[in-house]
Write a structure and sequence with these properties.
Its main location: membrane. This is MFS transporter. Keywords: Cell membrane, Membrane, Transmembrane, Transmembrane helix, Transport. It is a single chain. This protein has a single domain, classed as Growth Hormone, Chain: A. The longest helix has 30 residues. The protein is 82% helix and 0% strand. It has 18 helices and no strands. By secondary structure, it is an all-alpha fold.
């Protein structure tokens, strides 16, 4: 559902609706990010209250009108409303799949599970961005590329309704048998926390949770930049829609496939330095995109950007799962994803304002610097969250 927009929508706004200002053109990402961020927060609470599966199905129902609105949109306002629905849908569906996988696996395989979840999603984003680029080049910007979205809604809703099983009881069992860390690191994080306390701990107070939240926000901030401005940058250099589609697909493809390995590696090597290094690699890649003006260098930079994002994305989710108590883990995931996907909105607004005022290259370099600073915050503030149980702790867990 996201992939159908990444190549086509920036070009659609410029060519069919005459959206020339960067800030106005990125409005659809701003709307999407705000809607998804807010819905992420409620998705965690609702999945605890009503169960995971009902929230997942509801998310797919909200997605039903999105591709139809993009096909028939008579004005740019219709595109904004479609992205409002898409943001709500993504907040409900993707948040729930994350929570369900954390429900189903223990701490030793949490990074692997998050890598599988995110790899499935972003590989699909890449494949669809590539496919819609070729469809748009062959058949025009509308309606052909968005026919894929209609198929995705049907598949997602059908599978969620008929195949997915409820996982909430797994989390309750995990909470009942939860063993505290022997080093006392999480002794202040009690089993019963209010929604407000979960928000404060995840956002500001707990060092690892708050460091992860800011890194997630900055990661999606630069993804909002990539989504909204890169196709315009590439088109301005004279690249064809097909080549723009290749570049739009390359970054999420490396990101998606890389997570099959990086999530599992974080189970072996730890979370902290995987996250910090990934943010710094993203910063280098963004700076290179801002400096380059040819397809081959942009392709290399997109590959590096995807690799850096792959190092960060599943590892941040695994770190949240490491620290949050099972009784309020779904709510903590919701708060983290509120901040992370709020980065789409912040990135769209910041990138648009900077590009309008100072030029598109300056906007890219500024966000590269912000990404490097975020990695430094992780290096200074976050402790290693992936705690390997001692033999004594493992014995207690086995006895339980």
């Amino acid at each position: 559902m996201l992939g159908q927009e990444r190549t086509v929508l920036p070009l659609l706004g410029e060519q069919e609706f005459g959206i020339t200002a960067y800030t106005a053109g990125l409005g659809y990402i701003l709307v999407f990010g705000l809607a998804k961020a807010a819905t992420n927060y409620f998705a965690g609470t609702w999945s605890d209250r009503f169960g995971r599966k009902p929230v997942l199905v509801a998310g797919w129902l909200v997605a039903v009108p999105v591709p139809l609105m993009l096909i028939w949109a008579p004005s740019w306002e219709w595109v904004l409303v479609a992205n409002l629905f898409l943001g709500i849908s993504q907040g409900l569906t993707w948040s729930t799949t994350v929570v369900m996988k954390i429900d189903l696996v223990g701490p030793a395989r949490r990074g692997l599970a998050m890598g599988l979840n995110e790899a499935a999603g972003y590989t699909a984003v890449a494949a669809t961005a590539l496919a819609t680029g070729y469809l748009a080049e062959s058949y025009g910007l509308r309606p052909a590329p968005f026919f894929l979205g209609i198929a995705f809604v049907a598949l997602g809703l059908g599978l969620s309704t008929l195949a997915v099983k409820e996982t909430r009881e797994h989390a309750r069992l995990d909470a009942a048998s939860h063993v505290a860390r022997a080093d006392g690191r999480h002794d202040h994080l009690h089993r019963e926390l209010s929604n407000g306390q979960v928000f404060i701990q995840t956002s500001f107070k707990e060092p690892a949770l708050s460091a992860a939240s800011q890194a997630g926000l900055v990661n999606n901030l630069n993804d909002g930049l990539a989504w909204g401005l890169f196709p315009i940058l590439f088109a301005g250099a004279g690249l064809s829609v097909g080549k723009i589609g290749v570049l739009a697909a390359l970054y999420p493809a490396v990101w998606g496939l890389g997570q099959l390995f990086t999530g599992a590696l974080s189970d072996r090597w730890g979370r902290k330095w995987m996250i910090a290094s990934g943010m710094w690699l993203q910063a280098i890649a963004l700076a290179l995109i801002g400096l380059a003006d040819v397809f081959t260098v942009w392709a290399l930079a997109a590959t590096l950007l995807g690799a850096g994002t792959a190092m960060v994305y599943p590892t941040l989710l695994a770190a949240i799962g490491d620290v949050a108590h099972p009784a309020w883990r779904a709510r903590s995931v919701g708060v983290y994803r509120l901040w992370r996907d709020g980065g789409f909105a912040v990135g769209a607004l910041l990138a648009g304002l900077l590009a309008d005022a100072l030029g598109i290259h300056t906007a890219i370099w500024a966000i590269a610097g912000l990404t490097a600073l975020s990695g430094l915050v992780v290096a200074v503030r976050m402790y290693e969250t992936h705690h390997r149980p001692t033999p004594a702790e493992q014995d207690v867990t086995n006895e339980t």
